[in-house]
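PROTEIN–LIGAND DATA SHEET

This sheet pairs a single protein chain with one bound small molecule, S-adenosylmethionine, given as SMILES. Inputs appear in the order they were entered. The predicted three-dimensional arrangement of chain and ligand is reported afterwards as a token string under its own label.
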Amino acid sequence: MRLRNIARSKNIVENHQVVINNPKKYKNHWFEVFKNNNPIHIEVGMGKGQFIIEKAISNPQINYVGIERYTSVLLRALERLSGRESENINSIEPQTLNNLRFICMDAREITEVFGEDEVSKIYLNFSDPWPKSRHASRRLTSVEFLKRYQQILKKEGKLEFKTDNVDLFDFSLWQIREGKWNLEATTKDLHQDKTLNQNNIMTEYEEKFSGEGLKICKLICTPPKIL
Ligand SMILES: C[S@@+](CC[C@H](N)C(=O)[O-])C[C@H]1O[C@@H](n2cnc3c(N)ncnc32)[C@H](O)[C@@H]1O
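PREDICTION REPORTED AS:
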């Protein structure tokens, strides 16, 4: 997703209190940001933020960090948070969730931002498919990215991935096997799966694609056990 580059989006994002501008400074020190040692869950490629904002509202005992590459997209999440259009976004006190922060960055740098064992859960929702095989390493479920996640996830940590794209889902299952991750659960029709669909929070893309009649795939996996 890349929205029209909204003028001022960079400026607004950089000056917003929910956005962490220098995230590398907090590697191994995220408790300083949240002022507690609660578990940290992150969403990589959060888009306009519907999923992570709802998660943060429903689970105050968890700290959430949303990662998005584009300021123009992150701006939409900030607007959702404050319930205002960008013109007014700085003129009111946004609804502050103490357990939610956003970072504008490329997830390729994620190991420079979170330390070993610092993250308890990673969400990947409707990640860009990068259909050309020469771009496979850019897919957020490629072994290249799984290695990065492995460095920051706790041993008992989990990765949860949802998509409408069956090719990307099959690729991801293959990469999980290649990387020796442990597959805990999988479905190719999430909304008909009573167990996996329990407490499901829909993302913007999930609403759009399931509204068009597409089935949603989901998997949950844990990092390889190092003996
Ligand atoms: C297809 S959208 C899905 C948005 C949202 N998760 C949803 O389900 O509605 C994918 C989002 O991931 C972001 N993204 C893709 N690759 C990224 C990367 N390497 N680092 C950070 N964000 C990324 C894109 O900019 C885009 O906003």
